[in-house]
């Protein structure tokens, strides 16, 4: 009886640190029926900001005429450089005032423009030097930071500028079992201001949030639930979670043997 009482006490203590099914489910309150569609009204149109790194490429039927406008890097002297880091040397850094310097075209204000509008602007200026220029612009340092209760926290470089919070969490290896899905914090810096917003991944309201689509340099922090706090503050709790199944089996065996 003493052994059984001890096992029951251990089971109760372990249960206090367990994660419930409801805490593990995302979009628990999604009300959209299958087969129904809705318009996307919260998609972001990203604007170029200071400290953004842009890749600007110019093409023409005359490659020699376009060559001066394309940034090139001499690998000699850089040592062993990965392809990703090499691209960073080939971009135009937007300065603190929102300008870049292009060969022959000089200083151009780009902050506040979209990638598409910058392409049109550069193309118009290039017509003085090149016949029918083709201009492409993209971000080189588009990234977000994911911290907290995810499998692989860290800085995540993104291949394109249209990324949702769900995609970023997927790139971070998804949420852990101890993630607080009802309180995911996003920190955003834009136009010299910092904003904060908490999203509830268990609600379908997340899809209508202006923070559902991420911007460059967003920081995502996934809070832990209380059960996680208990395992961190009390290492013995983790030990109990491992010993309880073993002790339970031992208790059953002893009970059968002593009959």
UniProtKB/TrEMBL annotation:
Keywords from the named record: Cell outer membrane, Ion transport, Lipoprotein, Membrane, Palmitate, Polysaccharide transport, Porin, Signal, Sugar transport, Transmembrane, Transmembrane beta strand, Transport
Topology in the lipid bilayer: Multi-pass membrane protein
Domain SLBB: 143-222
Subcellular locations according to the entry: Cell outer membrane
CC per GO annotation: cell outer membrane; pore complex
Domain of life (superkingdom): Bacteria
Polysaccharide export protein N-terminal domain sequence ranges: 45-138
Classification via PROSITE patterns: PROKAR_LIPOPROTEIN
Record Pfam families: Poly_export (PF02563), SLBB_2 (PF22461)
Biological process, per Gene Ontology: monoatomic ion transport
InterPro entries per the UniProt record, alphabetical: Poly_export (IPR049712), Poly_export_N (IPR003715), SLBB_dom (IPR054765)
One Gene Ontology term of the molecular function aspect: polysaccharide transmembrane transporter activity
Similarity-based family: Belongs to the BexD/CtrA/VexA family.
The protein, known as: Polysaccharide export outer membrane protein
Species per Swiss-Prot/TrEMBL record: Neolewinella aquimaris
């Amino acid at each position: 009886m003493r052994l059984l009482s001890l096992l029951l006490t251990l089971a109760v203590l372990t249960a206090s640190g367990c994660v419930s099914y409801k805490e593990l489910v995302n979009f628990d309150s999604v009300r959209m029926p299958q087969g129904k569609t809705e318009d996307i009204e919260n998609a972001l149109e990203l604007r170029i900001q200071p400290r953004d790194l842009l890749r600007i490429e110019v093409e023409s039927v005359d490659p020699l005429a376009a060559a001066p406008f394309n940034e090139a890097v001499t690998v000699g002297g850089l040592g062993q450089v990965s392809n990703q880091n090499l691209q960073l040397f080939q971009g135009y850094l937007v300065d603190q005032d929102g300008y870049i310097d292009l060969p022959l075209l000089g200083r151009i204000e780009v902050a506040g423009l979209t990638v598409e509008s910058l392409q049109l602007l550069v193309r118009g200026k290039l017509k003085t030097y090149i016949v029918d220029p083709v201009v492409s612009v993209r971000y080189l340092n588009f990234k977000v930071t994911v911290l907290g209760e995810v499998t692989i926290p860290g800085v995540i470089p993104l291949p394109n500028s249209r990324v949702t919070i769900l995609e970023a969490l997927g790139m971070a290896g998804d949420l852990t079992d101890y993630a607080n899905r009802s309180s995911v914090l996003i920190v955003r810096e834009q136009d010299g201001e910092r904003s904060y917003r908490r999203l509830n991944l268990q609600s379908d309201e997340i899809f209508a949030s202006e923070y559902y689509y991420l911007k460059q340099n967003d920081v995502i922090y996934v809070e832990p639930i209380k059960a996680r706090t208990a395992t961190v503050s009390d290492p013995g709790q983790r030990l109990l979670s491992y010993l309880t199944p073993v002790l339970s089996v031992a208790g059953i065996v002893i009970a059968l043997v002593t009959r």
